[in-house]
Amino acid sequence: MLLGIIVIAGIWAGLQNALAGGGSFITLPVLMLSGMSPLAANITSTVALFPGQVTSGLTGRKLVTGAGKLSFWALFALSVVGGVVGGLLLLNTPSSVFTALVPWLVLFATVMFAWGSFFKKPGDFKAHLGPVGAGVAQFLIAVYGGYFGGGIGFLMMAALTMAGLPVRNAGATKNALAGVMNASAVALFVTSPQVHWVEAVALGAGAIAGGLCGNWALHRVNERMLRIVIVGIGFCLTVGLFLKPISG
Question: Which residues contact 212 (CB under 8 A, 6 or more apart)?
């Protein structure tokens, strides 16, 4: 019964990521409710959702590009190193400390998602971000992505468009780099005892199925309503974690 719920959560998360992002808002609470600590749930979710991110990155690879004078391979390298740093920080964070941080991380991710979905205007990113600024921004985003990851899509979209990329190219490049930075973290996580492999496989299988349904649903699902649901889940989860933190 529990594994069935986790598979369903994976399908939802995969579909959600394909349409609007924010799949971790589904997987994190479901895994915590299954009895995992927030630290174990975050690590298990990252490992499980990784194949779907790779698929998304490969699908849009023709639009992937660098940011001005900063080549894609430079962004790639920064994402790898940043992902490793974030993953190492997470593995060396005591579960009790991460438990205390989770409400703030979920709140930050939810605010970023809401801002990117409903409040960002087309002219918000007209300011130019040079190669050094874009590189620093990508590295810091990668560290955050390796550590937690919620909201990285909007952070990267902001940085890449400020560096001069058109929105379509920024979206494809963002998907590719998200897979890269999480690959670094996953490479560290696969040997961690915090990974619950049975749940990870069930969640991952569901996420792959959900991702494959994404193209079919893209023209049939009201994306604005989906984004409203995602933000609602994020804020409810945040409030719940602040009022009644889950023991680590």
Answer: 14
